[in-house]
From TrEMBL:
This is Hydrolase. It comes from Acinetobacter pragensis. Belongs to the metallo-beta-lactamase superfamily. InterPro entries: MBL_superfamily_lactonases, Metallo-B-lactamas, RibonucZ/Hydroxyglut_hydro. Gene3D superfamilies: Ribonuclease Z/Hydroxyacylglutathione hydrolase-like (3.60.15.10). The keyword Metal-binding applies. Residues 1-26 form the signal peptide.
Amino acid sequence: MNILKTSLFASLCAAAALGFNMQVHAADIPQQQQVAGFYQHQLGNTQITALLDGTNFMSPALFKDISPDKVQEILKKYHADQAKGVQTSVNAFLVNTGKSLTLVDSGTADCFGAHLGSVLKNLKAAGYQPEQVTTILLTHLHPDHSCGVSKNGIANYPNATIYVSADEANYWLNPKQAEKITADKRANYLGTVEKIKAALAPYQAKKQFKTFKLGDKIGEFEVISTAGHTPGHFSYKLKTAGEDVIFIGDIVHSHTVQFDRPETAIEYDIDPKMAVQTRLKQFPDYAKHGQTIAAPHSPFPGIGHIYSADGKSYQWIPVHFKD
Ligand SMILES: [Zn+2]
């Protein structure tokens, strides 16, 4: 044993005596990325593919009419990671009835940065081609739901017709509306309008953009008015041979704070009072009937149920993994 080997041997013995594990340092093995991107959920003959756009983090200060202490208490109760903010998922859903392929909401494309915008990539990874999508149902026109339909003026789903409620289209696309927005909110509104218009333009140019009103049916989907978060916000209900599913849209943004305390509005709500009323109307109904729901901002895959023990506070019950 030469001097170097002797001293190394001595160090190893010393380390072993101190209880160090000299075989592998944790840092020697690189950690790997999360791979979740799509999730197949079967309902009767219909397959719903949840598509992850990405994960977003919200400031706890965005919650309204609730004390910061109460927000922290709820987040703590649900072990909600707080390091970067309140975690929310951005999900879209692809519905395959066997005869048609419908996309419900479309994610952000590049409207919010590189941490989001993966719906199209994940749709392809799930085994589908964007050309197969013939219908896109938008719950509302906020850019985290509408931007994903196109990129740089080119339709991501060239054979699809987009549907949105007439009230929603009027609020964002009617130039006269801007005059009704209060001065403090106008710049933000106009910035959002710009993103929405750019996303929809290739579809409007080819007359593949349509509006609907309450009572209309789009293919096999019924429309449910859930205004408040935006003026023309709608949810979509699909009856399948197995059970019904409702694509709820943004009637809720936080599976922790707004489930635990559903009276809590969020800064993104255009009419916070009405948004709360809508949630307080829909949640008891969904809880009572064991309704399967698909939610764009619940943790991926965003499919699950609502439970309430007392009719006041609710819990998000995610679907159980099935392979
Ligand atoms: Zn949203």
